[in-house]
Amino acid sequence: MRRCINCGIEKNESCFYENLNGCKECDNARRRKRYNKEKEHERYLKKKAKDPAKWKEQHRKQTERWRKRHPERALEKVRKYQKKRNKYYKPTEEEHARSLAYHRIWKTRNKEKVNAHRLVFIALRNGKMKKPLNCERCNKVTELLGHHKDYDKPYEVFWCCRECHGIIHRKKICH
After folding, report:
1. Nearest CA to 146 among 170, 175, 172, 105?
2. Distance (Å, rounded) from C-alpha 63 to C-alpha 77?
3. What would the pLDDT profile of 7-56 be if each residue is shown by its tens digit?
4. Measured between alpha carbons, how far is 14 from 160 in angstroms, rounded to an integer?
5. d(CA 40, CA 43)
6. Where in the chain are the domains?
């Protein structure tokens, strides 16, 4: 006799699968539940694919109702999202200290990068160097980032937008 961990009933050994602690009845019920959940999800995706605009509007209304019923949980989700996006998020003292420690270590390991960044900042501030208005790669007018191809030549800076800078660092293109 063995006790099922799901229903708690003692049953004969033949009522159990070899490698499971739950009885066959409980395991079959679990599998049926999962199967039905998957089928329901498939139906949901088919409905969504038929009329995406209608689904989007229904989803928006449903989300709005949920936010009204659960304002605390909605605020918690917003805070989590903002923390993830690092937008309008004020870090805790512990997180701030950890970040400062990380940057301190990074600066000691990357002195040539820090020096190049500092020299460009000073040159921009003193007017010895001008930042262009548009990205040198895609010509988009936006906030620009300076990219150093060689840190031994700190005044040779490739000015690009955030998207192009990411592409350059992922080595998708050469400038």
Report:
1. 175
2. 12
3. 888 888 888 888 778 889 998 998 898 888 888 888 888 888 888 888 88
4. 69
5. 5
6. 30-72, 112-169
